[in-house]
User: Fold these one by one.
Assistant:
Number 1:
Amino acid sequence: MKPIVPFEPVREAAVPAGEQWIYQIKWDGVRILTYCDESGVSLYNRRLNERTKQYPELHDTESYCRAKSFILDGEVIALAADGKPSFPQVMRRDGVRRTDRVKQAQKEVPIYYMVFDILYHNGNWVHQLPLQQRLDLLSGSLTPTATVQQVTSHPNGHVLFDLMKQQGMEGIVSKRLDSTYVIGGKNDSWIKVKNYGDIIAVIGGFTLSGDTVNAVLFGLYDAQGQFWYIGHTGTGRMSKADWRALTDRLTPHVVKERPFVNKPERHNDAIWVRPLITAKVMYTDWRQQEGHMLRQPSIQAFVDVPPEECVFPRN
């Protein structure tokens, strides 16, 4: 099967209300579509990068899906010690490239596949059916296991979102029951409301404490391909060893000229680098239209995303 670009929700500040909506937890992980037909099984992320070898737990499709051929859409997650989804943890699995390391990664970081949609079923495309029919079809096809679960739909979005805030989790996705699945599309029949914001940004500079990086400066590209500084951070899910490893990664790419169009404030000691390394950055607020920097940004994980794809969001 040829991989497809998945349907994406738009981001809004408020949870929509009404009987035509259902609400699901927005799991903080890696978007993975599972493709199965007579030729075998394959896994692809939303950027159409193959991830089949990274997640062998999902290869035995007969153990969790009764359909003979299908495309499932869901989120692969991994849990932290507190039992909550951890993006850095799932990146430890998603970043494995060598086949000989996959088994060890399986033992160290178990994953879970949270399935929320079905697009193809026993030789037929079903993405144009209303969501309610697709969910019924998914329920009748999926066999829950310790690794694979169907995402629960909740009737009250405000209650669910309040719970996510209490738990410090990412947020929720609201979906219209009559919505079709638009391949490669994005519209407000699916709406995500987040407890906090996150983006994938590109590192364009750093500062040192001694001989080790202690903070990074990062930015995004605009529609004209210009690289804009949007913030800096020296915090996040980073150990001392992680900072030393980042120092080794950044040092070969040092340049004399500032890569950002705009000049960062209070960073006369910054060392500039070519914008090559990307990271997921979490923040509490960002008034982009007012030209403000990210508020309280922190690094969550380094990711395998091309720098040129790190652009200012439309929503």
Number 2:
Amino acid sequence: MSVYAAVDLGASSGRVITVRIDGDRVSVDEVHRFTNRPVRAAGTLHWDILALHQGMLDGLRLAGQVDSIGIDSWAVDYGLLDGDGRLLGNPVHYRDGRTVGVAESMTDTLGNAELYQVTGLQFLPFNTIYQLLAEPLLDRAQTLLMIPDLLTYWLTGSRGAEVTNASTTGLYDVRAGTWASGLATRLGIPSGILPELRRPGAPSGTLRAEIAEETGLSPATPVTAVASHDTASAVAAVPARIDRFAYISSGTWSLVGLESPHPVLSEESRLAGFSNETGLDGTIRYLRNVMGLWILQESVRAWGDGDLPALLRAAEQARPFQALIDPDDPAFLSPGDMPARIDAYCVRTGQHPPDGRAATVRCVLESLALAYRRTIDDAVRLSGQKVEVVHLVGGGARNALLCQMTADATGLPVVAGPVEAAALGNALVQARAQGVVTDIRDLVRRGEQPITYQPRGDQDTWTRAGARLPFH
């Protein structure tokens, strides 16, 4: 039996999960969960990277001896090291406001259309490239490390940039599969800070002596580069039986798209807001970021009501399409009183606000399902590929109402699960690197029992509902 530790960092919590592989049997166990709480200091919103590091070490201690360790996280955020390898300040949170107006000021140097031809990325104001242009510590930096690469460096002393996360920075040439060094230099970002690229499965060193002592692990324990963007790990674990599938990695954000053998870089694709991010084995994750369960999470937090199952049961009985929102409207991006923002959005768009909490929950979920439908339809049209099934993975796979609404809205069967897709993909890439696994998706199919939701009702009802709002 082989045991792998997957460190899976999300926007609100981090986990250390052990994945045991014994022939065709795969077991997944969460051994430690810790809070990922942003900290605002001196007017800037930071990640508490030291708390994440300590939470990871605590989890590795609880995991016991493992055959390898891998780390995945959200994208775009980074740490900067000085010439002595010391961290220059806490990484800044992507929801911090420092990048406001940066992209617009950059267009005189490099237009959005030209940038898209190189990077293939959806315009998001918090992309790494814009953060670096607003970075006061840039002139002191010797190395840029994305969050998983920074934590790997602290574990092993080895510096590198895993390619699935590097491809989200806006500094990666999606066609060449290399850093876009010329683009960086043109923008005044020193290309020398960009470390050597690593592919998923590449070795990232073994544990420092002090880390081995603190965790009780062997200093010979390897750390393996996985598909370190959590969505890339999640997509790697999609239990697809056919190639003609769309995926929704559903968590705080929803990343909705399909796998493509090559990037789609048309002007229409750019204007539609699609990204071409690198996936496992050089595939392209052709996707669009859609706001995810964040709106629901913030609503529940504002109500002080932790009984989400009861809210979902009530929402199922609420009147359909009472009100709809565009989940990607900027009003829903920042933390705050989300129910009040939903009401204000409805007033602004000529709708009656939802009548109570159940109606608000239904409004959010119906709006997400419509956004998923629109994104999948756009991806199919722009890529020329066909889709016959939707795989919904991540935390949203637990939300039966959202899954059923997605099937109803798209007119396609929705296969929900695995919930722990990112951690599972993380661990199975490690296992494949050691020769324990050959076909990741085949093993997931045999080890998981996902739930399939068939479309029901009249899809024209969803079409008419979707026509009520101009989505971003």
Number 3:
Amino acid sequence: MTLCVLFWSVNFVLGRFVKDDITPMELAFFRWFFVFLMVSPILIIRHEKIIHSLKQNFTILTVLAILGITTFNTLLYYGLTFTTSTNALIINSTVPILVLVLSFFILKQKIKFYQTTGIILSTLGVIFLILKADIANILTLEFNQGDILIIITSLSWALYSVLLKYKPKDLNDFEYFSTTVAIGLIVLLPFYLYQGYSFQQELEVLQNNYPVFLYVSIFASISSYYLWHYGIEKIGASKTAQFTHLMPIFGIILASIFLKESLHSYHLLGASLIAFGIYLSLFYKNTQKYF
């Protein structure tokens, strides 16, 4: 799971880094287009099984594809054109809180005392980072358009993670992922075509930025999505989501290197609170008290 969130942290920084060379729609569309090409053998070989499952589970597969493939990634890249990668990563670390709340209402999942304590500590670490260790900053705290979009993407991903509980049991992880990629790309296609890009323009974008598209397709998509799904199956959505609190740590370091965003002592202190909160949520099990 640590490797998964590291790949995604790079994706956040990369989305900000290429904002002047690749439009958000281009980055989102070609990311999933190349993933689709990579998983197409699975779609072809297992087409009868996938079509049968799609007929039986069309609604949930479509909802999951829209949340996890279309909405999350596209709005993320649009958000990164207006806000910094550091801001985006910090806001995104609210996902565990959203997952816990949604799991409580949708899955009727009980909340243990130590989980709540860990989430509170991690959240305090995030707030510490946002306020830059100065409570006076709360008076000037503002959310721009990019921040709002990132909040929407966080909610989208949290809901996706919770609803994975209802994904078809007859599809394995690779079949499921391939199916949602195909559906998500189909949903995204009209929005991409609406932009009116020329063939020559897109050819130049692909030629000049192919390493970016390869990274977001292989590491930020195929590898990370598989690891995320594996984590949810093994330890549940709430605990898996706690690992997103590591993203600000990775992201701030990467942003300071590649985007020249400053790294301060409050980043390190906030990261320490986040890390301790993850420890409590995932590994500390001395009490069985529930809320």
Number 4:
Amino acid sequence: MLIFKRKIEDKIAERMFKGRAILIFGPRQAGKTTLSKKILQTHNHEKAYFNCDLAVVRNNFELGRPDLLKEMVGENRIAVFDEAQTIQNIGAILKAFIDTYPEVQIIATGSSSFDLANKIKEPLTGRSFEFILYPLSLSEITESSGKITREDIDELMRTGSYPAVVAERSREIKEDILKNLATNYLYKDIFTFESIRNPLIFESLIKMLAFQTGSLVSVNELAISLGVSRAIINKYLKLLEQAYVIKVIRPFSRNYRNELKKAFKIYFIDIGVRNAIIGNMTYVPERHDKGAIFESFFIMERFKEEATKSFPATIMFWRSRQGDEIDVVEEIEGKIRAYECKWTMNSRSLPKSFTKKYPEAETNFVSPDSIRTHLGF
């Protein structure tokens, strides 16, 4: 079985034993448990792992007393609390523990930022380092496998990059894993912690979003189609983003009159999950939506690469009111990078309405054949 080295591993190692908790957010099944156990294996210190999905762990934890928690941790110097969002008042509990026992390195993972962040971030302000672990990036897969071909990229655009999917060789089992993720597992925390009064509407919204990936999203149209209020749609969109199912992309604008400023697009964190949701696992080069699939794949690869940096670029899109569009616009330290996604490189042109407004922007054309160059490897 392939063992994947994650890009954030070294950054986490550099921040161990600094008197701060290490928080690892990300979707379920992205590899947080594997990574945290790997971190434990690389240290000679005494260590302990606690699965907070287990009731016995939660019950001991929620007493909230640092001395009782220390009794549970024992003489271990490193303690991992996996799926920590299941613990009530987790942030306050960890703050009290870190203040009392700063010599113990706490690592907490969570698959839903809406719950873990609310419970941890505020109490642990100034007492934590935070990381996001997405499904595997193309560079992580390449480093672990030694090489990657165009055929491999086509398969990743079909089945996505969750570690269990990438490591599996059987097409049938890959698709079974994706079906389970797409129909149940990714939404576990949303249904557990949030009040979803109509799961059928929630699931219908997810499917509508999957068909609209890469297109402008209208909350009004979604609300009318599903027969619910705009407030409900906005709530569900927020929950899906906080549970790392989707990514909301905002428009880039310098306040020129004819630029879109309030519209947004939605991409799924994993393109394989998106394909499973719409029930289409066909070979990507043969599909009518292959352009949208590649655009979605590339944008999420850019997010994965930037997530490993201390000061990541802001990733957006650009669109004029006349319909001219740039697929990806990144801004960092005042500099602009623009990417236009192409299935083939037969035509290369950018809207003049963009290049005239932003002549200083670095412009790039990217295709499945050239994607590795634009990801820096």
